[in-house]
Design brief:
This protein is of the alpha/beta class and 145 residues long. Helices cover 22% and strands 18% of the residues. It has helices at 22-32, 91-107, 131-134; strands at 6-11, 14-15, 42-44, 50-52, 70-75, 78-79, 112-115. The strands form two sheets. The chain has a five-stranded mixed β-sheet. A two-stranded parallel sheet has the order 2-6. A hairpin with a 5-residue loop joins strand 3 (42-44) and strand 4. The longest helix has 17 residues, at 91-107. It is globular and about 40 Å long. It starts with 5 loop residues before the first strand and ends in an 11-residue tail after the last helix. Residues 1-120 form the Peptidoglycan recognition protein family domain. Belongs to the N-acetylmuramoyl-L-alanine amidase 2 family. This is N-acetylmuramoyl-L-alanine amidase. GO terms for molecular function: N-acetylmuramoyl-L-alanine amidase activity; zinc ion binding.
Length: 145
Amino acid sequence: MRTVNLIVIHCSATKCNRRFTVKDLEDCHNARFHNKGIGYHYYIERDGQLYQTRSEEEVGMHARHYNDSSIGICYEGGLNEKGAPADTRTPAQKQTLIALLRSLKVDYPNAKIIGHRDLPWVAKDCPCFDAREEYHDLQPLVLEQ
């Protein structure tokens, strides 16, 4: 298992009134990363559907200088109907994201949860909400024995 000390949340930076499916993300990232697949480890569509898009053991392509030690999660959206940055997460996305984060904290209990914008030198609003504040006290999923 590789050492993971960050869980970085992203948005797809797409308008909330237009779909951007996991297939759209795959096409976009294959074009951007020369057919190396999706750079995030997980993707959450608007209906809350969760896709594992890269093995957690595989280094991601989502946070320059931090990929070796992070897990990347992206949700569909992040822009309002006019294209301005906004927290466009649906209730289903929020529920899926919390469940995923709690699950990841079981395997990576010391990993900090941050937004892409919280990394040094990132001049984006991504993920368009304060992930560090929202999830600062999130507890791992309790597994029954």
